[in-house]
Amino acid sequence: MRPLVLLMAAAVAAVAQDSVQALQKEFEKKVSEFTLANGLHFIVIERHEAPVVSFHTYVNVGSVDDPGGQTGLAHMFEHMAFKGTPTIGTKNWPLEKQAMAAVEEAYNRWDAERNKGVRADKKKVEALELALHEAMEKADGYVESNEYDRVVESNGGLDMNAGTGEDSTNYYYSFPANRIELWYLLESERFLHPVFREFYKERDVVREERRMRVESSSQGKLVEALMATAYEAHPYRNMPGGWAGDIEHFRRPDAERFYQIYYVPANITIGIAGDVDPKQARAFAEKYFARLPKRPLPEIYHTEEPEQEGEKRVGVMTPAQPLLVMGYKRPDQHSPDDAALDVLSSVLSDGRTGVMYKDMVRDKQMALAAASEATFPGGKYPALFLFFAMPASGHSLGENEKELDRLIEEVKTAKVDDQTLNRIKTNLRASLIRKLTGNSGLAAQLTSYYVNNGDWRRLFRELDDYNKVTAGDVQRVARKYLVKEHRTVAYTIAAPAGETSEGGAK
Q: Is it the case that residue 9 has pLDDT exceeding 70?
């Protein structure tokens, strides 16, 4: 076993003995932080076990920040970040830039005619569309496809990827320790000089992703229906991938405006973990990232979800495996009840030892799977406490729902025993610690905790919060938040809607 893994295993044991402060002090010896004049914050973690460094760029923007009528734009920009720079990914940048401008001019002419509605000249629309596609083909002809990826891979870069969620967008990959300056160059360049090449080709890719992940997935459609029903006003109602009609009408200037508003240095935090010298890390940051111009932070999102005044239900037609999802309104991640809600979820759904698995899957065999999630889809704003059940053959959705209701009432009326509570709290602490055993996970966790709490040390205070949760706290939050008036139930329908009973999941 590697020394690092042994250290983390010892750390888990230490946390179980309430030595959270000691563990935090050990990390503080390895962590250094600094903020550039433009507001970009760095967290550097020294770990010299192997000559590898992981980088995690956390941008404090997600699908909740998508402009009205442009859901999925944050996700679309994420795709653009891998398209290169004025020097990477092009055969001739000056000519490509001109060709890209010509595409927008052709698009404007096509849109102008289409926007006339019933008075539009159909033949002219067709001709302008043909001209647009010709302009796109010309611009794409200057593209050196996937060159950014090849530069990374040819220099030993690994695991390059990105993800867009409701609350954030994250970019991450690892490099050999002797190639870290290349990372600084590449990452700073794509945020300093983003090039939105192949925008409309990539827009088609994003549209296809939605088709695969939502429209062709019974689970994807069900979750989308749940969120759109549970939330009336707050943008958590929109999936990160966006709605089809919005995606199909994205324009390159839309993504450029989004970048100008949200991709400002003070809205970005970078975590670096591995075989790195903190002084060198700072010197490279000053050399490359200080070039990003300082710009004001975007406005804070203000729309609040109104209080739900009754249970909501929604059914989705699908020939696939029956599914049931229930979401109860809960507060955001800064609530003093957050740790107790995590423990409650584990009481119900801690793998094969959770109440739901033992009752519904193992003993009564009415479900193929049953689980809960304390926070969904994100924690920055008030969210949902989620339940999921997949009925077994011969058992209905209604039967599974009734059993879930019974189990929920049990945790409201009977306190969890001390042995179970201690096991769950130990597992939660261990799970959190295990996320820190690898460079990539550590860089991700520390940047996330820094952005969402103002201090990466909040991670260790969360361990302490788990220690403080009592059986009474678990019962209290179950009674407070798992109430039918504040829940939304989504379920699949195998038969025509007219053949189902009114208001019920059959």
A: no
Peptide bond into 377 cis (omega under 30): yes
User: Beta 324-330 vs 158-164: how paired, if at all?
Assistant: unpaired
CA 435 to the chain's CA centroid: 16
The H-or-E segment that residue 135 falls in is helix 122-140
List the one residue out of 77, 196, 214 whose CA is nearest residue 139.
Answer: 196
Pairing label, strands 367-376, 383-391: antiparallel
Residue 469: helix, strand or coil by DSSP? coil
Q: What is the pLDDT of residue 353?
A: 86
Cβ atoms of 51 and 103 within 8 Å: the answer is: no
Q: Where are the alpha helices (DSSP H) in 338-457?
A: 338-349, 355-356, 397-413, 418-434, 439-453
Which residue from 407, 415, 426 is spatially nearest to 472, judged by alpha carbons? 415
DSSP structure class, residue 301: P
* Cβ-Cβ contacts under 8 Å for 343 (sequence gap 6 or more): 421, 424, 425, 428, 466, 469, 473, 474
The answer to whether 490 touches 314, Cβ cutoff 8 Å, is: yes
Please check whether residue 202 is in contact with residue 83, taking contact to mean a CB–CB distance below 8 angstroms: yes
Domain 55-291 class, CATH top level: alpha beta
Closest to 65 in 3D by CA, of 167, 136, 138, 184? 167
d(CA 210, CA 200): 15
Q: Mapped to the 3 state alphabet, what secondary structure does 237-297 carry?
A: HCCCCCCHHHHCCCCHHHHHHHHHHHCCHHHEEEEEEECCCHHHHHHHHHHHHHHCCCCCC
Q: Is the pLDDT of residue 506 over 60?
A: no
Please classify residue 362 by burial: count the beta carbons closer than 10 Å to its beta carbon, then call 0-12 exposed, 13-18 middle and 19+ buried.
Answer: exposed
DSSP characters over 22-48: HHHHHHHHHEEEEE-TTS-EEEEEE--
Nearest to 229 by CA among 488, 502, 503, 506: 488
pLDDT exceeds 80 at position 180: yes
Question: What is the rounded CA–CA span in Å between residue 344 and residue 500?
Answer: 33
Q: Which residues partner with 43 through β-bridges?
A: 33, 271
Instruction: Check for a shared fold between 55-291 and 312-494.
Output: yes
Which single residue is written with the structure tokens 């002090």?
25
Structural domain spans, the chain: 55-291, 312-494
At 67 the three-state DSSP class reads: coil
Beta-strand pair 268-274/41-46: parallel
Topology of the domain covering 312-494: Cytochrome Bc1 Complex; Chain A, domain 1 (3.30.830)
pLDDT tens across 413-471, in order? 999 999 999 999 888 888 877 877 889 999 999 999 999 999 999 988 888 899 899 99
pLDDT at position 25 is 80
Buried b / exposed e along 182-198 (16+ C-beta atoms within 10 A)? bbbbbbbbbbeebbbbb
